[in-house]
Amino acid sequence: MTKIDKDVFQKLVREASEAIEEVRGIISLDVESFLNDRRARFSLRYCMVLIVESLADIAVAILEKDFNEVVESYRDAIIKLRDKGVLGSRVAESIARLVSLRNLIVHRYWMIDDLKIYESAKNSGVENIERFIDEVSRYVEVKDD
């Protein structure tokens, strides 16, 4: 039986899902329209940060509650979920890349490249986020049986 608080889990999934809906609307814009729309660029940045933080919070909670593991970083949490068999390698690697992208947005390690964020979201980023949610949800449900 998984020990993650179901209400917390559902809240984090809802946060990520709402942000995914917003991202889908933004990436439906063509590249030029996106780059010329400051509100869309800023919204996409925020949504990606929110999504990554929600997914990482889920990962941290599962690791702490079910495996008594403490992690050093969001990236570490995702990799450890893969190592524990909660996530598949492909999804874990994709989300780990999104964690790196989130870090660049939040900490501004270099000038933020909105085109890179847009392309990352459009080129399987959203699908891998949804796969993460599916895989973790299956883990939580299976552990409850």
Q: What does this protein structure show overall?
A:
The radius of gyration is 15 Å and the shape is elongated. The chain has one domain (6-144): bsu32300-like (Four Helix Bundle (Hemerythrin (Met), subunit A)), CATH 1.20.120.580. The longest helix is centred in the C-terminal third of the chain and has 31 residues, at 114-144. With 145 residues, it is an all-alpha fold. The termini are close together. The protein has six helices and no strands.
The first-level CATH class is given as Mainly Alpha
Helix/sheet category: mainly alpha
Number of domains: 1
Number of strands: 0
The N- to C-terminal Cα distance equals: 7 Å
Q: How would you concisely characterize the structure shown here?
A:
This protein has helices at residues 6-27, 31-35, 38-67, 74-83, 89-107, 114-144.
Task: Annotate the secondary structure layout.
Blueprint: H1 6-27, H2 31-35, H3 38-67, H4 74-83, H5 89-107, H6 114-144
Feature tags:
single chain; 145 residues; mainly alpha; Four Helix Bundle (Hemerythrin (Met), subunit A); elongated
